[in-house]
Design brief:
The protein is α+β, with helices and mostly antiparallel strands. The protein has two helices and three strands. A three-stranded antiparallel β-sheet has the order 1-3-2, covered by helices on one side.
Length: 79
């Protein structure tokens, strides 16, 4: 497993894990949020070495799409 990204909470890590898992990418989480008494703090998202490139592309594509989500609205609607 190799490091893909570090996120701020276990919730964020589980969202990333679900997104990657939907495309068949195996993940593992490591950080303060593990165990029976999860603590707040950063969580590392790890992926299988062979799937790291595909995982990075998916993460980048999602970030780019998020930037354009609100731009499709017609500015004339605000008047």
């Amino acid at each position: 497993m190799v490091h893909l990204t570090t996120v701020g909470s276990m919730f964020e890590a589980r969202v990333v894990m679900a997104r990657l898992g939907a495309d068949g990418i195996l993940t593992q989480l490591r950080g303060a949020g593990e165990g029976p008494y999860p603590l707040p703090g950063p969580v590392e998202v790890l992926v299988v070495v062979d799937q790291a490139g595909e995982a990075r592309e998916l993460m980048l594509a999602d970030q780019v799409e998020a930037l354009f989500d609100g731009l499709e609205e017609d500015p004339a609607d605000d008047i």
